[in-house]
Amino acid sequence: MNKKLKLEFLKDVNNFNNLVSLILNELIIIDKNAKQLPLNLSLASQNLTGKLWKFAPEEYGAYKFRNIKQQTEEGKELLPTKNFNENVTIHFGWNTLSFDTSLNAAWFSWIKFCQSNTDTFNCCLYPKNLDWYVLRAGTNLYPMKLIKDKYELVSSD
After folding, report:
1. What is the Cα gyration radius of the chain?
2. At what angle do helices 2-30 and 103-113 cross, to 10 degrees?
3. Using one digit for the tens of pLDDT, what is the confidence trace for 26-69?
4. How far are the Cα atoms of 15, 33, 66, 76 from residue 100, in angstroms, in the given order?
5. DSSP string of 1-51?
6. Neighbours of 3 (CB within 10 A)
7. HSE (side-chain half, CA atoms, 13 Å) at 58
8. pLDDT in tens, 135-152
9. Domain boundaries, the chain
C-alpha cells in the first residue's frame, strides 16, 4: 500500500509540474513577465474566483461559441476592456492554479492548454482593481463589468 501511494504521489507531482510548465511556457511566449502566483495569493484568488462565479448569470445567459477558436477570435470583442496590456490574474478551475500575466497572454494562450484537464477548461481573468472579470467555461463566455457597484454581463451591442 505504501509503495502504491508513493508511486501515485510521484505521478501527481510530475503531472502537476508538467501542467504548470506547459501553462507558464505558453504565457511567457506572449508575456515574458508572466509568473505563477505564490500559494498565499493563489488561495486568496481561489476564494475570490468562487465568489465571482456566483455573480455570473446561469449558463443559458452566457455567450456561446461553436469552439474555443471561435471564442478566442470573436469573444475578444465582448471583453469589458480593450487594454490587452493590462495585468490580470488567470485562475483555473476550483483549485489554486493561478498566474499573473497580461490580458493578451491570458486570452490568446488559453487555447493551447485549456483542454489539459477539467480545471484548465474553466478559468477566470480579473485585474487587480476588479472593475471587470471574464469567465471562460469551455465554449461559454461570461464577460462581466462592474456597473453601479454590481457586476453585469457585458452587452454585445
Report:
1. 16
2. 130
3. 999 999 999 999 999 999 999 999 999 999 999 999 999 999 99
4. 21, 8, 28, 19
5. -HHHHHHHHHHHHHHHHHHHHHHHHHHHHH-TT-EEPPHHHHHHHHHHHHH
6. 7
7. 1
8. 999 999 999 999 999 999
9. 2-153
| Residue 118, C-alpha cell as written in the block | 477539467
CA 61 to chain CA centroid, Å, is: 19
CA 153 to chain centre: 17
Q: C-alpha distances in angstroms, 99 versus 23, 33, 45, 65?
A: 9, 11, 10, 25
Amino acid found at 61:
G
The three cell numbers of residue 114 are 485549456
| All cell numbers assigned to 57 | 448569470
Report the residue count for the chain.
157
